[in-house]
Amino acid sequence: MSEAIKFILPDDKLPKHWYNIRADLPQPLPPVLNAATGKPVGVEELTPLFPLELIQQEFSTERHIEIPRPILEVYRLWRPTPLRRARSLERLLGTPARIFYKDESAAPTGSFKPNEAVAEAFYIREAGAKKLVTVTGAGQWGSAIAFAGALFGLQVKVFMVRVSYEQKPYRRVLMETYGATCIPSPSKETEAGRRTLAADPTSSGSLAIAASEAIELAATDPDAQLGMGSLLNYPLLHNTVIGLEALEQMEMAGYWPDVIIGCVGGGSNFTGLAAPFLGKMLREGQKVRAIAAEPAACPSLTRGRYAYDFLDAAHMGPMAKMHTLGSSFMPSGIHAGGLRFHGMAPLVSHLKEIGIIEAVAFSQTGCFEAGIMFARCEGILPGPESNHAIRAAIDEALRCKQEGTARTILFNLSGHGNFDMQAYADYLAGKVDDRELDQKTLDAAFANLPSVRPHNVK
Amino acid sequence: MSEAIKFILPDDKLPKHWYNIRADLPQPLPPVLNAATGKPVGVEELTPLFPLELIQQEFSTERHIEIPRPILEVYRLWRPTPLRRARSLERLLGTPARIFYKDESAAPTGSFKPNEAVAEAFYIREAGAKKLVTVTGAGQWGSAIAFAGALFGLQVKVFMVRVSYEQKPYRRVLMETYGATCIPSPSKETEAGRRTLAADPTSSGSLAIAASEAIELAATDPDAQLGMGSLLNYPLLHNTVIGLEALEQMEMAGYWPDVIIGCVGGGSNFTGLAAPFLGKMLREGQKVRAIAAEPAACPSLTRGRYAYDFLDAAHMGPMAKMHTLGSSFMPSGIHAGGLRFHGMAPLVSHLKEIGIIEAVAFSQTGCFEAGIMFARCEGILPGPESNHAIRAAIDEALRCKQEGTARTILFNLSGHGNFDMQAYADYLAGKVDDRELDQKTLDAAFANLPSVRPHNVK
Question: What does pTM read for this prediction?
Answer without folding.
Answer: 0.95
